[in-house]
Write the structure tokens for this entry.
Amino acid sequence: MGDAEPGRAGLPGLRGGDHIGFTVPDMAQAHEFLVGVLGCELAYALPEMRHADDWMRAHLNVDPERVVTEIRFYRCGFGLNFEVFAYEPHDGQRDVPRNSDLGGHHVALYVEDMDAAARYLRERGVRVLAGPVASGNASQGQRWLYFLAPWGMQFELVSYPGGKAYEKDARVLLWNPAHPER
């Protein structure tokens, strides 16, 4: 896909998401969680990134004195990659944001069997929040459940094997990892 389609607004050539990047306090702990619990696969790693000039601010919007100790790339199922950063600890680091904070976020993972996935996480000692919750309104047909990585980052399980209510009259369907052909 090259230039934007005639009459279509938006970023020229947009095909979809490539990866989600996030920073962790301990790469070994993150690796164990991503690979050992979630089942992601390590694709490759990059070495330390340190610059004596303003490169870090200009390219990553971080303090020029920050040092990335390692970056790892993981494939997590179909259609989702993680770029995981570890920085040298420094004064002024912030806690992981909650959904209600500016920049708050979560990573949602589609599962075929919500109950089996929730049970699996609980059996491995993962902090699982209340639920699963059955959605209503346009999301009716979906169930979801939040859980936390060991460093506090929020993840979500979602499942809607029969689809969501909005789909029957929708002009645009959300991408669905269970039916990527749509």
Q: What stands out?
A: The longest strand covers residues 68-75. The domain at 96-182 is CATH 3.10.180.10 (2,3-Dihydroxybiphenyl 1,2-Dioxygenase; domain 1). The CA atoms of residues 15 and 23 lie 25 Å apart.
